[in-house]
Amino acid sequence: MNKRQIEALLKDYHWMMNSIKLLRDSMEDAGEKLTAQYGIESVMPKAQGGGQSDPVAKETARREKRWNKVAQYEQKVKLIQDRIHLITDDREVEVLHWLLEGKSLRWIGKHMGLSHSHVNRIRESIVDKITVDVPDVPNVPEETDFAKATSTC
């Protein structure tokens, strides 16, 4: 990930979390009020052509797209969450917390008694630390006994 992508993720984190929660809650009702036709309508010929005329199939496709969007949001949010442990400085932790809550740099500066430009420098430091390549498994030391071992093959 580059710095711009990390900055965008930090900026979008709050609304992504809210969207994930709302979409999960609303999508758990999947299938309610969607019924297939019964009786004579079920055997009648359906419209031909490029589009799908079945409202149940359309709704299923729409919901599938929304689930895919939720999965994308979750992946982005997880990327930030997996790297939070890299931030150890107290000021950086506080700024990161408020950024993830969706607060502006000016609001954070006012809250912490700092100028918004100083908060911006702290944010840049956070982005630099998060941008560093991190292994997929958090808190794993870079050098392990496995890395030093030679292959017998």
Task: Describe this structure as you would to a colleague.
It comes from Salibacterium qingdaonense. GO terms for molecular function: DNA binding. Keywords: Transcription, Transcription regulation. This is Regulatory protein, luxR family. One of its GO terms (biological process) is regulation of DNA-templated transcription. The chain has 153 residues and is mostly helical. It has a domain at 3-32 and 55-131. 61% of the residues lie in helices and 0% in strands. The protein contains six helices and no strands. Helix 4 (105-112) packs across helix 5. The longest helix has 29 residues, at 55-83. It is elongated. It starts with a helix and ends in a 5-residue tail after the last helix. The relative contact order is 0.13. Residues 136-147 have low confidence and may be disordered.
N-end to C-end Cα span:
34 Å
Low-confidence stretches: 136-147
Shape: elongated
Structural category is mainly alpha
Rounded Rg = 24 Å
Question: What is the typical, i.e. mean, pLDDT?
Answer: 80
Elements, N to C (H/E): HHHHHH
> How is the main sheet built?
none
Tell me the number of helical segments per DSSP (H or I, 4 or more residues long).
6
- What's the total number of strands? 0
Q: How much helix is in the residues?
A: 55-70%
Task: Tell me the β content.
Answer: under 5%
Summarize it:
InterPro entries: Sig_transdc_resp-reg_C-effctor, Tscrpt_reg_LuxR_C, WH-like_DNA-bd_sf. One of its GO terms (molecular function) is DNA binding. The chain has 153 residues and is an all-alpha fold.
